[in-house]
Amino acid sequence: MSKNKDKKTSKNTSLNANGQSIRYTTDVCVFILGDAAGVREEDIITQFKYASDIWGIDFRPNICDLRTREGARKCGLSVDATLARISVPLQVRKREKVFKALRKGNCGRKTGLAVFYINAQDLQDGKAIGNVRWDNNGTRGNIVMTYATFQQKNMDILAHEFGHALLVNARHSDDKNNIMYPSGTVIVSPISQRQLRSMTTSKQRAKAYKRPYVNKI
Length: 217
Prior knowledge:
- The protein is of the alpha/beta class.
- The chain has a single domain (24-216), classed as 3-Layer(aba) Sandwich (Collagenase (Catalytic Domain)).
- Helix content is 30%, strand content 20%.
- It has seven helices and seven strands; from the N terminus they run αββαβααβββαααβ.
- The chain has helices at 2-9, 41-55, 69-74, 92-106, 157-166, 193-197, 202-208; strands at residues 13-15, 21-32, 58-65, 113-118, 130-135, 140-146, 215-216.
- β1 (13-15) and β2 form a beta hairpin.
- α2 (41-55) crosses α5 (157-166).
- The longest helix is centred in the N-terminal third of the chain and has 15 residues, at 41-55.
- Mean pLDDT is 77; it is low at 1-10.
C-alpha cells in the first residue's frame, strides 16, 4: 500500500542540486458555467492531469459546477442560477466582473489561477477556444476555456494557457513540439509522462516554479 502511494506522490517531482526530490503544487479554482450537459468533471480532471505532467506541477482543481443552484450551494456560493447561463458573445468587461465575483466567493487569497469553462464553441474572435487575462499586477490569472477544448485534438489547450499564466504571457514558441507552439500540440493516447514532460523545456519549468502561487514541498 505504501509502495503505491509513494509511486503516485512522486510523479511530478524535480531534483535539487543535492539530488533531493522536490514537488511543486498549486491550487486552481475551476468554475463550470453554461448549460451544456456534455461537460463532465472527469474530462476536466484529464485536462489537469495532462497539464500537471507537462509542467511538472500538481495543478489541484477545486471544481464548482455552477450549471445549477445546487451546484452553487455545494461550493458555498450564493450565486443566482442566471450566472450559470453565461455564454458568448459576452462583453469582456461584464465577463471579468462575473469572474471576479465568483473568485471572491470561492477562491482562497493565495490561489493565483482560476479556470472558467463557458458555454461556447469559441471566443469572441471566432477562432480562439481558450485564453488568459491578468489582474493584480499579474499575480492572479483568469483562464477562459470553451467546451470545444474537450475534443481530443484540443486536450493540450489548458496546459498551453497555464503556460501563458506561468510564464507571464510569454511569447509563443517556434518549436512545433513545445506546448507553447501557437496552434497547440496534439496529444494522442497512449502517451508517457516523459513524452508529455518533453513538451516543456527545463528553462520554461524553472521560470514557472518561481511564480508566487506555485508551492514547493
